[in-house]
Amino acid sequence: MNLDRPPETLDPLKRTAAVERETRETQVSVRLDLDGSGRADIDTGLGFFDHMLELLAGHGLVDLTVTARGDLQTGGHHTVEDVGLCIGSALAEATGDRRGINRYGSMLTPMDEALALVALDLSGRPYFAYEGGPIGENIAGFDSGLVAEFFRAVVNNARMTLHVRVLEAGDVHHTIEAVFKAFGKALRQAVSVDPRMTGIPSTKGVL
């Protein structure tokens, strides 16, 4: 996929996308199938991040392949951001003009003591709000502040509105896990095809 090319009209029989990005800092390849079974093949060099992307795929019932090589000696920022950029671009391509989909999704998800709320709209307008998530803590080499950077990159490139609220923070692993699971579930709702929605899911007729 050329990231400068607008997404094509959605083919309901093939809601897939492949995106590659190479810079002086990272090389990222993403393959996405919205109508998968939750299979994930993830290798970013950041084990905790790999685990979160596996949760996203599994709970979103999307098939997701991600391979990334980045300048991890400087930290995970470039890798995480560029993976988010590519996943967002893949979502934009796989949903096309968003004809026939539900468009909206939301989920309230517990993970033991942690509780996260995610609400999203595949509106064509990027907007990201994130409250209550951990910042500054490190999990197996992953900076918890990168959660927001990942989702911001997804939002800007998928052209979606996304609100993330951590209602009850707990163990940092549990808190971030609740966010990724909730996002996967909400995304599954939003991209699901509604048989009664034959056109663009907007009263304006376009997103």
Ranges with pLDDT <50 over ≥5 residues? 2-12
Q: How much of the polypeptide forms β-strand, as a percent range?
A: 25-35%
CATH superfamily: Imidazole glycerol phosphate dehydratase, domain 1
CATH class: Alpha Beta
**How many E strands?**
10
Main β-sheet description: 4 strands, mixed
Give average pLDDT, whole number.
92
Question: Could you say what the CATH architecture is?
Answer: 2-Layer Sandwich
Intertermini distance? 21 Å
Q: Number of helical segments?
A: 4
Shape: globular
Number of domains: 1
Question: What is the share of helical residues?
Answer: 25-40%
Radius of gyration: 16 Å
Secondary-structure element string:
EEEHEHEEEEEHEH
Class per helix and strand makeup: alpha+beta
Strand order in the largest sheet: 1-2-4-3
And the CATH topology? Answer: Ribosomal Protein S5, domain 2
